[in-house]
Amino acid sequence: MSSQATSPKPAVRFASRGSSHYDVALAMFCVVLIVSNIAATKGIEVGSGSLALGPVQLWPIVTDGGAILFPVAYILGDVIGEVYGFAAARRAIVVGFAMAVLASVTFWLVQHAPAASFYENQAAFESVVGPVAQIVLASLAGYVVGQFLNAWVLVAMKRRTAEKGLVARLIASTGVGEIADTLIFCAIAATAIGIDSFGVFLNYFVVGVLFKVAVEIAVMPVTVAVIGWLKRREPTYWDARTAA
Q1: Which of left, alpha, beta for 147 (phi over 0: left; psi -120 to 50: alpha)?
Q2: Which of 34, 142, 151, 243 could form a disulfide with 181 if both were Cys (CB 3.0 to 4.6 A apart)?
Q3: CB–CB of 205/184 below 8 Å?
């Protein structure tokens, strides 16, 4: 009686996070998060006229300034999770969280510090950074849930397919993370940018998810190229001792 030979399961590899490349990715991740939180204090409306379906506003498109840059945080999260693994992604999430809190506390202290007699922009300063605390709370709540889901889904899929299926796991992990992140963020931050109806809120949420996922797909060739570049330049990625 003969038994059919089975091929060995492919090794799942991650690079050591003790690398200058990881440090650069971590720094970029933190900067993108903080800048996005500041930019998100401005509501953006694209289009003229009005189109609604019952209570749901379909047009114009409603979003915020953070949408311009924040998708890059998920792209960087994908790069870190794919190359360095879940522990490295978790460290990036925690450090980014701490830096965002630091930025929020700093803005709060500066806002409430006595203005100099020659300083004429106190009202403008408060109008811009005043909502940052609420925006940061919304961003951090959504960010922690979304980024952990993003990293967990990506790494879990990689453990099943190793080096195969990179594009599929990048899209799937970003989709799951962005839906959770955007829903939580919009629910908390909507009033900070002036959204006061369910129809506009739904527009804000749906547009946010579609835009962020669209950005991920649009820059997918760049993301894949960066991941490939990092894998080739991280000696520990191909070290047998780092294979799971």
Answers
A1: alpha
A2: 142
A3: no
